[in-house]
Amino acid sequence: MSPRCDCCCEHIQKLNQQVSVMRKEIKNLRQMLDSAVRAHRKQMTSVQAAVSKMGLSEDKRDQTPSSPSSSSPQAALEQGNIQTVPIGYISSCFSVKNGTPRQPTICGPSRAELRIQQSVFNNPDHALVGLEQYSHVWIIFLFHKNGHLSYKAKVKPPRLNGQRVGVYSTRSPHRPNALGLTLAKLDKIEGDTIHLSDIDMIAGTPVLDIKPYIPEYDSPDTRMSMDSEPHGSNTDQPNSASALLNEETNVIIKDERTEEGVESVLSEDKFETDHSSSGNAPFSLPNDLRSVLEEVKTFVTQDNIYQVSCESGYQVSDPPKTGPERPCYGEEAYTTIAGWIREAPVASLDVRFTPHAERQLAEFLPTHLSGPSESDRPRFKFLRSPEEAAAAIRGVLSADPRSVYRRTRCGDRLFFFTLDTADITCWFGQGFAEVLQVRPVERHIASV
Ligand SMILES: C[S@@+](CC[C@H](N)C(=O)[O-])C[C@H]1O[C@@H](n2cnc3c(N)ncnc32)[C@H](O)[C@@H]1O
Question: Where along the chain is composition biased (Polar residues) (predicted)?
């Protein structure tokens, strides 16, 4: 190889310098291009989100079969975008979120009224005709007091004491479409107004829909018992032992759902009453299986009802933190729920009243009583008596209504909530809540 001359070397050096400058420029250009692409993508995403919010998404518009004008109500409906119109607003014994039961079954005497708006129907009372035949109704409503509309994929249910689970495995109010669903007791209907109890909605809650609760449609265990009605004669019936177990499992589910005592649910009376009350013929077992049924009953009414192994055909208890066991036979045989619903890490509390609080509560007049001499006494608007109010307070407090933060960080602070026309003050100790004061809410005294 011939030796390089000086000028060649110099030239090569210059070229190398130029190459390295160009490399740097290329690198810079790449970086600029990358960030421009990122910015563009971001912009596109937000534009797409805005477009789909308006119901004008390109993809979806192409899929619309009958191509109605994209801004028509029909197109909006087909794209899943509807303008909701509340059919009415809840008046209830809970005025603020604090102290409102987290689920309707927590506090039986919780009461509410719902008046159907005339702006929705010319004759709102017509829309309620026939509903009086049902004992319970589903109320679909908006969590209108969610404050900020933010939501997260994982939430911390208060009963899980800080543990996180997917929002769709909970009844959290904070969800993309702030819709609530409550199964309420239908007390009576007066014209355009429905009177409810067992509710967990605050006053002013906009209601979007009402549907009758029909166990045969809404409750898997009832669906099973309908299927099993013709057991005595049906040749397609499953073998008798498994039919028996299936039926019995239904009984267990009823117990879990209603949280009634095991004994009461497993009694023959209750079993038959449940069926007859839902309009079905009473379920009857072949005689030779009755003794087996008795054995099964004795077995499941033992303390370990939820710890029976799958081999015996019963549902295994779901320990907190683990997923539910699947049914051992026939998927539809019974429902399963997350273990923490039944066995939450947050224990229920004993509730007590100080003598002072008891006296204050007794001062409240039952709703139906009035008289000039007693006009200075506070009166409930929804609750029927001080006893009913005491039961409601017990229901609310025994479920520990505090947020996880309050419970863990400032457990010794006083807790205030309003129930109907009473302001309640209480405090929490280890395993209990004590009501210290029950005072009338000023504004209600003035308006009654
Ligand atoms: C956990 S949610 C459950 C509601 C319903 N049963 C459900 O499963 O969709 C019940 C809680 O929502 C809150 N809440 C009730 N009405 C509300 C409203 N209109 N806006 C915002 N939060 C409400 C109260 O704090 C109540 O304790």
Answer: 231-242
CA 364 to centroid of ligand 1, rounded, Å: 27
pLDDT tens profile 175-229: 999 999 999 999 999 999 999 999 999 999 999 999 999 999 998 877 665 554 4
Report whether 178 contacts 146 (CB < 8 A). Answer: yes
User: How confident is the model at residue 94, as a pLDDT?
Assistant: 95
Give nearest CA residue, ligand 1 atom 18.
143
- CB 361 within 8 Å of CB 387: no
Question: Over the Cα atoms of the chain, what is R_g?
Answer: 31
Tallying the residues shown for the chain, one arrives at 448
Residue 225's pLDDT is 59
Contacts of 405 (CB under 8 A, 6+ apart): none
Residue 383 shares a structural domain with residue 439? yes
Rounded-to-integer distance, Cα 298 and Cα 363, Å: 47
Cβ pair 64, 79 in contact under 8 A: yes
CA 205 to chain centre: 15
The percent of residues in the chain predicted with pLDDT above 90, rounded, is: 43
In angstroms, rounded to a whole number, what is the distance separating the alpha carbons of residues 363 and 359? 6
Side-chain-side CA neighbours of 138 within 13 Å: the count stands at 14
Q: Which two tokens stand for residue 369?
A: 């009583």
Where a domain ends, among 78, 99, 118? 78
ipTM value > 0.95: yes
Query: What is the Å distance from ligand 1's center to 171 Cα?
Result: 8
- Residue 62 domain flag: yes
Q: Is the CB of 144 under 6 A from ligand 1?
A: yes
Whether 99 lines ligand 1, by a CB cut-off of 6 Å, is no
pTM exceeds 0.90: no
Domains contained in the chain, number: 4
Secondary structure (H, E, C), 140-152: EEECCCCCCCCCC
Task: Answer whether 96 contacts ligand 1 (Cβ < 6 A).
Answer: no
Residue 407 CB partners (closer than 8 Å, separation 6+): 158, 161, 346, 400, 428
Domain extent for 252: 222-342
Q: Is residue 83 part of a domain?
A: no
* Residue scoring higher pLDDT (364 or 330): 364
